[in-house]
């Protein structure tokens, strides 16, 4: 780890954004940063800033593919924003909370309300699936119309357009988030316990990724899907997925250590075009770190205000962040 005086910095490239309230998630809509606020608003930050109200209440989940932003709220609505016009409601449950949302290939959408997951293609018939318990997370497979759904005691893999029973992946416990590897060979979930669980789909082999001092609340794939970067420890933990067996039998890579003992990583984001991650910490520190040698660049000094949102622009030339205390910024790199 380099010392504070030696570590290069990009602090002078950051433009402050007036969020004014806790930032719960960050995305990009083309060139604009989209910072979601606790009040149900979004701040779109680019050449100038503008605020748009999305929900009459809190935002419970959000997702973006860079062209559209989809949000689910405790007002029972699923809202889509493309950065050009007014937000449009694509579903209104009448008040049932929309817990999870996802954007998939060909602009397809998915969301959950309790045990029910709904799939909506850009064109065609909307379909629903009932899970054994409330949905903890939704992820589209990178190719095709297939969904991975986390829930209690495992995960379900669902082809909405194919008749028959969805595939079940079993593992006891509460599964709270889910993701699929770039090569579509592995499904990984975060759990109520401080660990990850995974399945190799070709043979159902289980993968248990443990050893975290805290719950894993943020995860992100690095360039090309080579690593899955995760929060939950005093440095970013990166599990390798480039080999045949994924992380099985291989130690993770640990980079971007905290400035002080006991401070944990709260947010991670993988650079889309380079082997670099951004890691945000509970004390407000943000580091950009190169995976191959651990070289660090300081993006933000620690100030005690926890990083709650972190995202890269699709071209990798900008990053956005937000904090629990309502601070935010856009870095041009």
From TrEMBL:
Protein name: WD-40 repeat-containing protein
UniProt xrefs under InterPro entries: WD40/YVTN_repeat-like_dom_sf
SUPFAM superfamilies with a match to the protein in the record: Calcium-dependent phosphotriesterase
Organism: Phreatobacter oligotrophus
């Amino acid at each position: 780890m380099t010392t504070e005086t030696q570590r290069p910095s990009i602090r002078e490239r950051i433009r402050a954004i007036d969020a004014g309230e806790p930032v719960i998630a960050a995305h990009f809509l083309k060139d604009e940063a989209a910072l979601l606020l606790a009040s149900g608003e979004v701040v779109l930050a680019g050449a100038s800033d503008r605020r748009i109200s999305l929900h009459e209440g809190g935002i419970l989940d959000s997702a973006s593919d860079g062209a559209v932003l989809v949000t689910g709220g405790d007002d029972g609505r699923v809202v889509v924003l493309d950065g050009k016009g007014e937000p449009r409601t694509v579903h209104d449950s009448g008040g049932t909370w929309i817990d999870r949302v996802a954007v998939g290939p060909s602009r397809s959408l998915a969301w959950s309300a309790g045990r029910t997951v709904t799939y909506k293609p850009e064109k065609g018939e909307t379909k629903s699936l009932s899970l054994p318990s409330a949905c903890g997370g939704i992820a589209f497979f990178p190719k095709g119309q297939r969904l991975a759904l986390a829930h209690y005691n495992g995960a379900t893999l669902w082809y909405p357009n194919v008749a028959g029973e969805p595939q079940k992946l079993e593992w006891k416990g509460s599964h709270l988030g889910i993701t699929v590897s770039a090569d579509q060979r592995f499904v990984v979930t975060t759990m109520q316990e401080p660990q990850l669980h995974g399945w190799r789909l070709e043979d159902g082999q289980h993968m248990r990724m443990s050893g975290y001092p805290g719950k894993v609340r943020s995860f992100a794939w690095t360039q090309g899907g080579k690593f899955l970067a995760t929060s939950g420890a005093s440095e970013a933990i990166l599990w390798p997925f480039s080999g045949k067996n994924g992380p099985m039998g291989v130690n993770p890579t640990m980079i971007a250590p905290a400035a002080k003992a006991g401070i944990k990583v709260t947010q991670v984001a993988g650079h889309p075009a380079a082997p670099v991650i951004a890691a945000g910490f509970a004390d407000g520190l943000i580091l950009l770190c190169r995976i191959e040698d651990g070289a660090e660049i300081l993006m933000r000094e620690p100030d005690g205000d926890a990083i709650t949102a972190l995202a890269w622009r699709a071209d990798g030339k900008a990053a956005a962040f937000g904090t629990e205390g309502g601070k935010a910024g856009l870095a041009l790199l």
